């Protein structure tokens, strides 16, 4: 069972990077880089989506694979960054 | 330059042979608007030709034959050393009826048979029918400047300058799924494969012989490099010697490429290579020199400032054609009809507009700087590979991300990114270091990412095909012993150059308007010489084309001479979104149309189109996918024998 936050991230990744519906399911801990889904433009897209969608401001130092390279990592980062606003 | 077509070995009735030959030449008439000629003989051979007259305007009609009419030729291209060869043949007693370079090949063939190609310095594709041996010979120049396609059909061998000629002879327009996979990896199919199932390309530096016993294809020249380490550690005096030798060779290859009975102009991009060629032309022929360039509406691509500087410095008569995203959208269907294959970038389109500008200005021949980046190490991919190797060997160096950012100063988005991301984008993977394709893996992987849009049925028909493994198997035996820079140069020179740069972006875009391109940097003497230059003098630290710059010192404005390479690019996906988007884009990307084409996943394409419409900006992989999907659909429109049927055939074979 995915929580609401993970589902929102997954939905964005599928619509904007994965595209396919018949592809094997992308695991929550699968590297977006290794899967060839994200390039330098994609990182910026992902960052601007996170900033717009969740009202957070990502510092340059936070734009690293540890925070952004898997669906689970993005969810964990957002959980740390804005725990209160994400419950809904 | 011209077009040729024909066939041998069929037992068709005479009248039918003439009809088929006429249709074949008619399909490529744009290559030779100045006249057509046909030879159909009792032996079953048929040669046709359409002519763009450049040398011996009055006497150069084709096909032509030898003294006793036993050897016939149809020829496209130029033999730049024909004057020297002609003098030699005259001295040996041959009788010439024309002053054309074509006739030189005929007599040379009489002397040397198929080995005649070894004496030719030029850009050529030709067919020779030898009535005595009842044998057809096809040949293509060393670098792959002029195109030649062939197919076995109706019991014989059919050939033509473009695939259109073979379709006109009755070959079906069916897509080869493996070729599509190769295009979505390398930007071009690996020869002899083409995107047309059953139609082959004669690879560069190859010749084909067809007689009653069968068809054989062989290589007559190959690009070779010294073993790594051999001749390295160049002293200053050696560098000076090589620099002067390069300058001399370049001047001579430019000189013989000015041989024509019509005026010769030049493309002037504002980059180092075309500036070098234009400067050499001006030194050789000081009178009025006409130059042409593409200017882009978007500052991201435009090089007008540098073009103007060269025009000022050399005093050329200059014209530019201004291109925006809308023009590219409008031109793309014609680009695909001429390129005859899907493309992943729109960069060929402005070059079609440029050749039109040249033709409208009354010229038929231009010299360009093509080939310098391959032969003398100008491309970013060479620097990128060098830095990746450095980083792999120095995992703790703090200079790594600085080096990577220095690589792509013209890409605005790269500057803010973290080292970990940069390293991943530039392809650091521990197991890559031993891969012969090391230099090109990031490019091939990014491009290959566009295959995510392939349909389930296309994937099934590919059955796990691995384009990279296919390429690795084709590499020459000595490849592993070459210096890494030479390995990377080989991959560019042997594959992308003929497969894409000289064809989809070169010959086909120029010949769409009956314009011939000539490329002094691709003189095989210069290419062979460049292969022996120590790698450290080609790419000196991170200074690309170092020896070329040294050889032209004092002859070019310093701002051009020291200019960092800016790759030639054009607006890609941007041409297909927004109010200026061409109407066909929505029609071709419609899920029902995509499903009908059978090659791409309609849902995935719909998501891509929605993202493009909504955000406007796409990543590299997505942009290549969008252009690739659109141009594949345009290809199906133009060439597939009833597009849905072709897709069905493909599914049936899966």
TrEMBL record, chain B:
InterPro entries (alphabetical): Asn_synth_AEB, Asn_synthase, ASN_synthetase/amidase, AsnB_N, GATase_2_dom, Ntn_hydrolases_N, Rossmann-like_a/b/a_fold
Species annotation: Propylenella binzhouense
Binding site for ATP: 294
Top enzyme class: ligase
Family per record: Belongs to the asparagine synthetase family.
Cellular-component GO terms for this entry: cytosol
Cited SUPFAM superfamilies: Adenine nucleotide alpha hydrolases-like, N-terminal nucleophile aminohydrolases (Ntn hydrolases)
Pathway where this protein functions: Amino-acid biosynthesis; L-asparagine biosynthesis; L-asparagine from L-aspartate (L-Gln route): step 1/1
Keywords: Amino-acid biosynthesis, Asparagine biosynthesis, ATP-binding, Glutamine amidotransferase, Ligase, Nucleotide-binding
Binding site for L-glutamine: 101
EC number: 6.3.5.4
Swiss-Prot/TrEMBL catalytic activity: L-aspartate + L-glutamine + ATP + H2O = L-asparagine + L-glutamate + AMP + diphosphate + H(+)
This protein's name: asparagine synthase (glutamine-hydrolyzing)
Nucleotide-binding in keyword set: yes
Keyword Iron-sulfur: no
Biological process according to GO: asparagine biosynthetic process
Residues forming the catalytic site: 2
Lineage of source species: Bacteria, Pseudomonadati, Pseudomonadota, Alphaproteobacteria, Hyphomicrobiales
